[in-house]
Amino acid sequence: MIILAVESSCDETSVAIVSDGKKVLSHIVLSQIDIHAIYGGVVPEIASRNHVVHMTRVFEQALREASITESEIDLVAVTEGPGLIGSLLTGINAATAFAFAHGKKILGINHLVGHIYAANIDHDLQFPALALLVSGGHTELIYMSDHMNFKLLGTTMDDAVGEAYDKVARTLGLSYPGGPVVDKLAALGSDTYHLPRPYLDKKEYHFSFSGLKSAVINVVHHANQKNENIRINDMCASFQASVLDVIIEKTRLAAEAYHVKQIIVAGGVAANKGLRKRIYQEIPGFEIIIPKMEYCTDNAAMIGAAAYYHYLKKGALPNYLLGGTSTLSIED
């Protein structure tokens, strides 16, 4: 089954063509990071307008690089949520128009499910599994008893981990996006600021990083009041150590409690080198799989991978009436 997939939930315009949920025939991602960097974050209206400008070109490039024609496409899949509603609707309208024009079936895919199935491109999911989903908008622990069967164990109560990284980077005067910069500088520093570890209740799997972010802001503010310099590398190392201590400990506890065979680490923060190094070291006894770097951030290949298993279980839409939603639970 050859699936044309579209992802436009935030500021990446992406189209991919995936065969049987595994083989990526083409994978085009047009990033807007340079455009939004001057604002220190994604501006929804600007993101939507740039999707409109480039969407047709990305479609054409994906078909050309896969060396296939429209007639060879079996199914069209597109992210329906969660995400920025304007960006989502741009991708949905483009995918729907393509499907209708060429007489193809279409289905909507949950963006979070796509991140999880990015790991299935180069690995094989084994059940029961535990997914740690960490990104700019999400920090979640999800139990999977089988393909496309999700139980949300824990989520963020305030700031998602990627969001916290960006805000801390801004506080320290670092560039956007903050995650990769903080990760890089953390490797050059030491955990000397000893920031709090926001575990909340260890019997639950929820996360909270707002207090940790505030702790960094307070340290920087007090240093500025005293005309003292902040050791940037050490602050990045201290912040990252706190984040990873919490994430890894909760993941370990959940994996042991649910007796899973496999731990999946997915989402943009799965590209974090510190996380990749520590999670293998500190959660022994479980198979841990992480997507390739190119499939960690938002991309259409992950939507095509998820769409194959979604179609096998639930089929496609009976019509072309697909809408977007900015909030969408993985259990929906």
Short description:
The chain has 332 residues and is of the alpha/beta class.
Number of strands: 10
Which homologous superfamily in CATH is the superfamily of the largest domain? ATPase, nucleotide binding domain
Question: In CATH terms, what is the architecture of the largest domain?
Answer: 2-Layer Sandwich
Distance between the termini: 25 Å
CATH topology type of the largest domain: Nucleotidyltransferase, domain 5
Q: List the uncertain runs.
A: none
Q: Which short descriptors sum up this protein?
A:
332 residues; Nucleotidyltransferase, domain 5; 42% helix; globular
Overview of the molecule:
- The protein has 332 residues and is of the alpha/beta class.
- It has two domains: 136 residues, Nucleotidyltransferase, domain 5 (2-Layer Sandwich); 167 residues, ATPase, nucleotide binding domain (Nucleotidyltransferase, domain 5, 2-Layer Sandwich).
- It has ten helices and ten strands.
- Strands 3-2-1-4-5 form a five-stranded mixed beta sheet, sandwiched between helices. Strands 8-7-6-9-10 form a five-stranded mixed beta sheet, sandwiched between helices.
- The model has no long low-confidence stretch (mean pLDDT 96).
Topology:
Elements: E1 2-7, E2 12-19, E3 23-31, H1 33-37, H2 44-66, E4 75-81, H3 85-102, E5 105-110, H4 111-117, E6 129-134, E7 139-146, E8 149-154, H5 161-171, H6 178-186, H7 210-225, H8 232-258, E9 262-266, H9 273-282, E10 287-289, H10 300-314
Parallel strand pairs: 1-4, 4-5, 6-9, 9-10
Antiparallel strand pairs: 1-2, 2-3, 6-7, 7-8
